Amino acid sequence: MSDVLEYMNTLGEQARKAAARLARATTEEKKRTLESIATAIDENRGLLAEENKKDLQAGKQNGLDAALLDRLELNAERTDSMLDGIRQIANLPDPIGEITDLKYRPTGIQVGKMRVPLGVVGIIYESRPNVTADAAALCLMSGNAAILRGGSEAIHSNKAIAKCIAQGLESAGLPSACVQVVETTDRAAVGALITMPEFVDVIVPRGGKGLIERVSKEACVPVIKHLDGICHVFIDDDADNQKAIDVAFNSKTHRYGTCNTMETLLVTKLKAPEILPKLAAMYGEKGVELRGCSLTRDILPQAKPATEEDWGTEYLAPILSIRIVDGLEDAIEHINTHSSKHTESIITENFTRARRFLQEVDSSSVMVNASTRFADGFEYGLGAEIGISTDKFHARGPVGLEGLTSQKYIVLGDGHIRQ
């Protein structure tokens, strides 16, 4: 244990020093660094494939299921995607140094805000080794040093990517400690990382509910996270039927295992008889299990009874809860009671109700006539995201470059003194 703590403290000290250098890096330096990292990864495809093979073999021996093995695999297509992601981030506008709201005060001074890095970002994640490259690129472009702790199941892949990142940093003239990958699989490393406020400014956990709950409870530094993705689609009295069917179907069946997948469908009493039978047939073709309230089961007798627990469950599977509501107020009350504050959507042609929904639903993404599956950084034009935040302070929703920064007040004077 003491060896792990000493090791993590060393990483922290190195990251803090590297963050000071990175904070003054120019946009061109950061772009050049990301291009160098992409080149290093491209040139070391053989090494990545070889090390990834070790992880896959170990995963099979340890009984990882097919889904986890699929997430773990780093094939040629995923390597290409990793390179595309790094280069996309390199081409995003650099937020650091941006000055906004600069105004003259009656005293003659100018007061404004400047966007600055957070400092050192600790990221804890599982399975997918491509997260190592994505996280490194986002932190570097936003001027932050990073300490990355991937899952033990991807240790060989992550170390190989880390070598490429270090090579790219050094060739671009930045310290390799700007991005450090934790090389121990000891779980004590996580406990150390989340309790080092002298070295780490923010923690971003990406993984299962157990990981995020642990980090949230034990961290001594701020955490950017979301725990569940219990997302809703509400079909209003004034919804266009085809739009409602298209959005409700896509929100559930586009992908089942994502945090922005719809888990509960709310439909008004007026629309339910028109829309639910059609949707049920479509869901049936996809093998989606339906669970409904008593009114829903009057229309769809094949649906299983929904329990109170269902309204607060993130299935991440082909299962959908359906509730028939009286109207907008009933829907908003249900959402604000049971939602995880991730993403909600209303289907309506009524402008006034749409505005009320946008204003009164307390979630990080609120939509009108659009699938909940749009709630991610790439679709929002952020290029990539470090995660989704359902908290209300600092960052909320998909967290891209700007979410990894803060602002400080700046004052411009010319020998001004306070009278």
Average of per-residue pLDDT values:
94
- Side by side, the strands of the main sheet go 10-9-11-8-7-12-13
Largest sheet: 7 strands, parallel
Strand content: 15-25%
Q: Uncertain segments of ≥5 residues (pLDDT<50)?
A: none
Protein architecture, described:
Strand 7, helix 10 (241-253) and strand 8 form a beta-alpha-beta unit. The longest helix is centred in the N-terminal third of the chain and has 22 residues, at 2-23. This protein has helices at 2-23, 27-43, 45-61, 66-72, 76-90, 130-141, 155-171, 188-193, 209-218, 241-253, 272-285, 294-299, 328-338, 351-360, and strands spanning 99-104, 110-117, 120-125, 145-149, 179-181, 202-206, 231-235, 262-268, 289-292, 304-305, 319-325, 343-347, 365-368, 387-389, 397-399, 405-412. With 419 residues, it is α/β, with parallel strands linked by helices. Helix content is 42%, strand content 19%. It has 14 helices and 16 strands. Helix 6 (130-141) packs parallel to helix 7. It has a seven-stranded parallel β-sheet with strand order 10-9-11-8-7-12-13, with helices on both faces. Strands 5-4-3-6 form a four-stranded parallel β-sheet, with helices on both faces. The radius of gyration is 24 Å and the shape is globular.
